[in-house]
Amino acid sequence: MKWEFNDDTPIYLQIMEHFKTEIASGSMKAGDKIPSVRELALEAGVNPNTMQKALSELEREGLLESQRTSGRFVADGVKTPENLKNSLAQNLMRDFLKSMTRIGYTPEESVREYEDYVKNNM
Predict the structure, then answer these.
(1) Quick one: which H or E segment has residue 48?
(2) Model pLDDT, residue 79
(3) What whole-number distance in Å separates Cα of residue 117 and Cα of residue 14?
(4) Residue 86 to residue 93: CA distance in whole angstroms
(5) How far is CA 73 from CA 11, 82, 88, 106, in A?
(6) Could you read off the pLDDT of 46-72 as tens digits, one per residue?
(7) CB 47 within 8 Å of CB 41
(8) How far is CA 39 from the centre of its chain?
(9) 3-state secondary structure of 62
(10) pLDDT, tens digit, 9 for 90 and up, residues 79-108
(11) pLDDT range class, residue 1, cuts 50, 70, 90
């Protein structure tokens, strides 16, 4: 896994987003085993407590599950990848509109800017 962090958001939230993206995209599937906290923390270059917090939150949200002696796994069908993908998309669109509004765009202008961007960059 490739880990890149920014200073704008707490690292544990970025770790959670990373796992959500992996699940939504299908890179991680229900039943896949998650490496240990120590392995992931070392790989990501973060404190094990930070990784533990992120994984615990993902469990609380129902995306991961612990099996006492076997470790953590991607949860079976609690939230389908399609539902997770839609949820992540809604969050991105909300953030986009908030940012565009902050710099003075209306929602309609924001949509036009986005459509122009896609047309010229795809």
Answers:
(1) helix 48-60
(2) 59
(3) 26
(4) 10
(5) 21, 19, 21, 43
(6) 999 999 999 999 999 889 999 888 999
(7) yes
(8) 19
(9) coil
(10) 567 777 888 888 889 999 999 999 999 999
(11) low
Nearest of 27, 33, 3 to residue 15 by alpha carbon: 3
Tokens of 15: 């770790």
Element (H, E) at 100: helix 81-102
Kindly state the DSSP code that residue 71 receives in the 8-state scheme: E
* Residues recorded for the chain: 122
Q: Helices 81-102 and 107-121 meet at what angle, rounded to 10? A: 110
Please count the CA atoms within 13 angstroms of the CA of 99 that sit on its side-chain side.
9
CA end-to-end span of the chain:
26
Q: Which residues contact 11 (CB under 8 A, 6 or more apart)?
A: 5, 46, 50, 54
- How many Å apart are CA 81 and CA 22, to the nearest integer? 9
Q: How far is CA 98 from CA 14, 92, 102, in A?
A: 19, 10, 6
